[in-house]
Amino acid sequence: MTHPAPAPGTPTSGRRAPEPARSRGWVIGRIADAPVIITPSWAIAAVVLTLLFAPQVARVAPYGGAQVYVVSFAFVLLLFASVFLHEVAHALVARALGHRVTELALTVWGGHTAYTGTTRRPRDAFWIAVVGPLTNIVLAVGFFALYRAEVGSVTVWLLCYAAAFSNAFVGFFNLVPGLPLDGGQVLESAVWAGTGSRDRGTVVAGWTGRAVAVGLVLLALGIPVAQGRSPDLFIVLWTALIASFLWQGASAAVAVGRAREQVAHLQAASFVRPHAVVTVHATVADVAHAASAVGAYAVLVVDDAGRPVAVVEPSTAGAVPAEALARTPVGAVAVPLPVGVVVDVALHGHALVTTVLRAGGGAGVLPAVHEGRLVGVVMVADVATAVRSAHR
């Protein structure tokens, strides 16, 4: 994301991702075992920013012509180098805390770092988020020191000033406490630490992000009016574009947080359905009899030790011709269960969803147990439907 005069800023963010698809673009290297990608949109942003900065450079530089555009482009490269270091900081801390970084990308909005894995502690999420802006603030201090020391030529002096200003802007703007900015993740971590609910933290930080988006537009309109002048249309349009991006990210965070809150309240016990049991030596006729006797939704097949090893749904058994029921072994219609996978009725929330939806093995039914005893079956489709409803 870019912002025009007096000097631009490029907000960036480190984001969690469940195995995201890789961004399209040119891979220029690897950091933290992840590809560094320059997207096509970055090239567009570089050209646009060069043209936008050129008039400002011309006003303060003692030269003109093509040199103005060369200096302007040098500043764009310096700006995105600062953004890149911001993302590198996110990536290195995320990897140090046990995550697998999947990409670092430079885009038209600045950049992002994507990584997989669940952040289990508020302080881990805090450090991953805050290290990016802190990197920019340290860079701002360093460039400002070089500017004050008046090192090098006039061009170097101007670039140091511009880099100090833009790094300070990027660092402090990203610390604004609203998602999708890094400061929003810091706020999310604080609420998580205070309430014990990460989902609540996500919702709070998302709503704060929405307020930030609205506030930016009001400032772009209100400040000039308060000063007795008309709002600059160009600044208002750019601010509205940035606000739109922030609003979309914040709204998505609110939706995800609310969905996770609903999922957290799911109880395994509410999904348990009646079952019947037959042994691995049974026939399909035994399955039909056992299911009809108790109105079972599914029949579990147990081995000689009483462990569930397969499942038969009544509709599958019903497809066997009546004359073949008694001579067809249960194994002909049974679906093997994932080894060792059962649903404890005490499970709830994300642990329940993870157990059921990641069970694998192709089974649509899983055995439910209470204190090691079979008490019913859980239909995978029921849990999946509940999760989809939560995310609507």
UniProtKB/TrEMBL annotation:
The active site is at E87. GO terms for biological process: proteolysis. It is found in: Cell membrane. Keywords: CBS domain, Cell membrane, Hydrolase, Membrane, Metal-binding, Metalloprotease, Protease, Repeat, Transmembrane, Transmembrane helix, Zinc. Its main location: membrane. Residues 74-147, 156-198 form the Peptidase M50 domain. It comes from the Bacteria. Residues 1-21 are annotated as: Disordered. GO terms for cellular component: plasma membrane. Zn(2+) binds at H86, H90, D182. Belongs to the peptidase M50B family. This is Zinc metalloprotease.
